[in-house]
Design brief:
Blueprint lengths: L5 H10 L8 E4 L3 E5 H13 L11 E4 L9 H17 L3 E3 L6 H7 L8 E4 L13 E4 L2 H10 L2 E4 L3 E7 L8 H12 L8 E5 L8 H11 L6 E3 L4 H10 L18 E6 L6 E3 L7 E3 H4 L6 E4 L1 H4 L2 H11 L9 E4 L4 H9 L2 H8 L2 E2 L20 E4 L15 E4 L2 H10 L18
Parallel strand pairs: 2-3, 2-5, 3-4, 5-6, 8-9, 8-11, 9-10, 14-15, 14-17, 15-16, 17-18
Antiparallel strand pairs: 1-7, 12-13
Function: Catalyzes the isomerization between 2-isopropylmalate and 3-isopropylmalate, via the formation of 2-isopropylmaleate.
Catalytic activity: (2R,3S)-3-isopropylmalate = (2S)-2-isopropylmalate
Cofactor: [4Fe-4S] cluster
C-alpha cells in the first residue's frame, strides 16, 4: 500500500477512496462552518438555488466573530437573519456574540480533531492544523454549496515539510518563527500546498504556538497546515475528555514530500513584518524606534491566553507611552475568563489598555479599533495589507505579543529587552 502524507490520508478518508497529490476528488467534510460576515451571502445563495433544507445540519456551524457585537444596524440585521436561519435549520453549532473567534473555539472545544476535514468560510482555517486536522478556508459560494450538498471538490495538494529544529530562544515566540519563515522563504513558499510541521523543536511548542504557526501558514499560500498528532496533541484532547484516533492524525512512514525546508530556531531574534506585505519582514532591531499610535493584542493569530500573559508580563508596573493606545481583544470567552482569573486584565487595564469583547475586532478592520489617516499600529495580527485595519494611509507592523506590549510602553517599536527597569509598583 502506498504511504500517504497527512493531507493525502485525511482527504482519502473524506473521499472514500485512495488519493494522491494532484488528484481531483469530491470530499465530504466532517464539519463546515461560517463566520458572520458570510452568512447573509450563504443564505441568499441557498434561497436562489431553491434549497429549503441544508444537507447535514449536524456538521454545520455559525460563529458571530467578525463584527460582534454589531457595530451598525446593517451588521445587527445580518446577525438577526443568521440566528433565525440557524434555528429554522437545526444547525448544530452556533456561537453568538461574545463567544469568540471560530478557529480558537474549534480547537479549544475539540471541534477540530486529528484526521478530520473541516471547512470554514474564513482563510485562517489553517489554524485547525494544530490539532492535526486538515482545515481550509472556502469562499461564501463554496460554503453554500457544501451546506446544500454536504460535499465539495478539490485538488489534493502536494505537501511541503517544514522542519523546525533547535530551541526557541528566550524572548522569542511562535510568531517570530512564522515571520522568520516568511523572511527567509517569502509569501509563496506553500502556494496551494499542504504543510506538515516536523522537527525536534515541536515537542517544546504547545497548542497555542502550533495554532500560530498553522494560522500564519496561509500567509505563505498554504491550502492547509498541520502538526502531526503527538504527545502534545494527545494531552490537549485528554484534558478535554475527548477520545481521538492518534494514528488518523499522522502521516504514513515513508510518505513522499514535494520539498523539505528547514529552520533552526537557535539564534532566532524577534521579527517584525513591515507594511504593506506579510513577507516584508525585518529583524526587530532594524525597525526599532519607529513611532506608533496604536498597539493591538488579539486575533486568531495571537489573541490567546499565552499572548495576554506575555503582554501583561511586559506591562506589569508600567504605563502606555503618552499618545499611544493599546487594545486587548481575547480570542474567546474562555481566554477572557482565564485572563480575568489570573489578574492579567487588571494588570493591562492599570497600564492603560482598552479591553474589548472576544472576536476579530480591529484585525478585520470592521470596528473596535480601526486606524485613522496616517496612523501607525503594531499588532499581533496576521495581515498588514493597505487598508486592512481602517484608513488606507495607515501603516501596520506585525510582531509577537511581548514586542507589541513593549512598543506600547516605549511609544516606538521596541524589543522588551530594551525597556528601562520598571518602577517598583506591580500588579502581576
Amino acid at each position: 500500500m502506498t504511504a500517504l502524507t497527512l493531507a493525502e490520508k485525511i482527504l482519502s478518508r473524506a473521499a472514500g477512496r485512495p488519493l494522491r497529490a494532484g488528484d481531483f476528488a469530491e470530499v465530504s467534510p466532517d464539519r463546515c462552518f461560517t463566520p458572520d460576515d458570510a452568512i447573509d451571502t450563504i443564505i441568499a445563495l441557498l434561497a436562489e438555488a431553491g434549497i429549503e433544507r441544508v444537507a447535514a445540519p449536524e456538521k454545520l456551524g455559525l460563529f458571530f466573530d467578525h463584527f460582534a457585537p454589531a457595530a451598525t444596524a446593517e451588521f445587527a440585521t445580518v446577525h438577526t437573519g443568521g440566528r433565525r436561519f440557524i434555528a429554522d435549520q437545526g444547525i448544530a453549532e452556533f456561537h453568538d456574540v461574545g463567544a469568540g473567534i471560530s478557529h480558537q473555539i474549534a480547537v479549544e472545544q475539540g471541534l477540530a480533531r486529528p484526521g478530520t476535514l473541516v471547512f470554514n468560510a474564513d482563510s485562517h482555517t489553517t489554524t485547525l492544523g494544530a490539532a492535526a486536522c486538515f482545515g481550509t478556508g472556502l469562499g461564501a459560494s463554496e460554503t453554500a454549496y457544501v451546506w446544500a450538498t454536504g460535499r465539495m471538490w478539490l485538488r489534493v495538494p502536494a505537501t511541503i515539510r517544514i522542519r523546525l529544529d533547535g530551541r526557541l530562544p528566550a524572548g522569542c515566540e511562535a510568531k517570530d518563527i512564522a515571520l522568520a519563515l516568511l523572511y527567509r522563504y517569502g509569501a509563496r513558499l506553500s502556494t496551494y500546498r499542504a504543510v506538515e510541521f516536523v522537527g525536534d523543536a515541536l515537542p517544546d511548542l504547545d497548542m497555542a504556538a502550533r495554532m500560530t504557526l498553522c494560522n500564519m501558514a496561509v500567509e505563505q499560500g498554504a491550502k492547509a497546515a498541520m502538526v502531526p498528532c503527538d504527545a502534545v496533541t494527545e494531552a490537549h484532547f485528554a484534558a478535554l475528555g475527548i477520545a481521538i484516533e492518534p494514528e488518523a492524525g499522522r502521516p504514513d512512514p515513508g510518505a513522499a514530500y514535494e520539498r523539505e525546508v528547514r529552520l533552526d530556531l537557535t539564534g532566532l531574534t524577534p521579527m517584525v513584518a513591515c507594511p504593506p506585505t506579510v513577507d516584508n519582514v525585518r529583524p526587530l532591531a532594524e525597525v526599532a524606534g519607529i513611532r506608533i499610535d496604536q498597539a493591538l493584542i488579539g486575533s486568531c493569530t495571537n489573541g490567546r491566553l499565552e499572548d495576554i500573559r506575555a503582554a501583561a508580563a511586559v506591562l506589569a508596573g508600567r504605563e502606555l507611552a503618552p499618545g499611544v493606545r493599546m487594545i486587548v481583544t481575547p480570542a474567546s470567552r474562555h481566554v477572557m475568563q482565564q485572563a480575568l482569573r489570573e489578574g492579567l486584565m487588571t494588570t493591562l487595564a492599570a497600564a492603560g489598555c482598552t479591553i474589548t469583547p472576544p472576536g476579530c475586532g480591529a484585525c478585520a478592520g470592521l470596528h473596535l479599533g480601526a486606524l485613522g489617516d496616517g496612523e501607525v499600529c503594531i499588532a499581533t495580527t496576521s495581515r498588514n495589507f493597505t487598508g486592512r485595519m481602517g484608513s488606507r494611509t495607515a501603516e501596520i507592523y506585525l510582531a509577537g505579543a511581548a514586542s507589541v506590549a513593549a512598543s506600547a510602553a516605549a511609544g516606538v517599536i521596541a524589543d522588551p529587552a530594551s525597556l528601562p527597569p520598571r518602577p517598583i509598583r506591580s500588579t502581576i
